[in-house]
Amino acid sequence: TTPVRNICCVGAGYVGGPTAAVIAYNNPHIQVTVVDKDETRIRRWNSRHPPIYEPGLQDILRTARDGTHQRPYTSTWHGSTRESLSNWLERKPNLFFTTDIAQCISEADIVMIAVNTPTKTRGSGAGSATDMTAFEAVTAVVAQHARPGAIIVEKSTVPCRTAQFVQDTLLLHRPNVEFEVLSNPEFLAAGTAVKDLLQPDRILIGSSPTPAGRRAAAALASVYASFSPSPRIITINLFSSELAKLVANSMLAQRISSINSIAAVCEATGADVDEVATAIGADPRIGSKFLKAGIGFGGSCFKKDILSLVYLANSLRLPQVADYWRAVIAMNEFARDRFSSRVIRCLNNTLVGKKLTVLGYAFKKNTNDTRESPAVDIIRTLVEEGPREVAIFDPCCIPAHVTEEIGRLLGTDVLKENGGPVTVYTDVYEACDNSDAILITTEFDEFKNSGELAGAEEPSPSEQSETEYDNEEDLEDIREIMGDHDIRPFLPYVDKPSDRFKPMPRCNDSCPDCERHSIRR
Ligand code: NAD
Asked: What residues line ligand 1, using a CB cutoff of 6 Å?
């Protein structure tokens, strides 16, 4: 295969940004450019304040985007203070962010399409079919500008047989030019994106079964081979790969719904759902992961991918299959509503005049991704009961963003500034002060380890070791990959969960991108 020298990733979102950063980081010889039509997003990716928070991302980004030709600093990262001038790794920047979409596509050996593919909200298939507007628009631009022989990769999660549509679009615009289309779905999870990208369970590459298709798959595999052992790279057929991504998310969501259904039975019978989960998880055929009962799954992917599978099943006239998967979503909504109802019941069936605190607004820990967060529906239900205050605190989200989003989703009337009950706090203790009930809606370690939340000087040994273990694991990944290269995370984001309760460090006041300047301290 011809060596890959230039990759263009279209879509600078939760997938495109971190994926491109990790690929660039591990392949200094490849120029990786991320393009997006959203100028603000690109500006932020080029600033000290990237638009998304993921543990470890700052270090990867800084190295690949800015190079490492600056003077090293004295680090305490490894537990001891040391100068590392001699170990300083020199490398040139090879990761770029720009809005110059056509130009970058025209220069790329591989074009990755990583734009959003949400659920359709209007027209035929509204509420379940995938909205392919963004994907289709990008495909047309790629078809017009890609250089002959370029490999076109579907990174977005797309309906089965989309590769055929991409191939047809390419043929329509450039009838005499050969292009190979690959499916390479992304399995990263928000909150652990960098870790998942650095140490993937598997990398799935779907290609056509022709020699040219296999050559294209090998070229893409060579990009991943620099950081992932080849047995983890699975090459299959195009449509299987597209479908596998939908099925993976649907099966993960199904496990959560399954254990949540059992939680309802446990609460009614006196059995303990965690004990049941431990007992069944010991069977390797079931496995212990993803069996934590709670308020249900959120995030931009699980629900939309199940809905896409439901739509596919219905369009194939398989209503039984569609009903089966739709029930996973119904059970998820049941789990979330059951939680809100229980809170109201515990407070004597009235929230009037009461203060409730919602800890965690993101859909899961260690991310600022709030899409489809269960917290939103819970807040909506609480507000309807007429409380005095609904106080919200999230350690990863910018309060101004949370306020803006709640105003958009629930109406601006609910906000305190307009006389409503919803207040977003920057201080967890103020949020909890005088509260009638504290609801933990995201499993951030700070909330789980109650010693930290209660302001205890010393967490208990078990809590301490859990916190340290989580941090250590994150750091270990970065250390392994960075070797002796000292890392200084950018301000103002901090990676250690325990640091998030400390006042946010201020960055240079002249920085135009720092949204934290508006935060009350
Ligand atoms: P996102 O909304 O965060 O980012 C998509 C980006 O695409 C946006 O910045 C948007 O401006 C850009 N875009 C849209 N139309 C464009 C156009 N015509 N030209 C240029 N840029 C355009 O989405 P995401 O969360 O990164 O998800 C992207 C895809 O990856 C989806 O298909 C999703 O299902 C899939 N996926 C997401 C995750 C996740 O955890 N978020 C995980 C695996 C797979």
From this structure: 10-16, 36-38, 41, 101, 114-117, 134, 137-138, 156-157, 186, 188, 190, 300-301
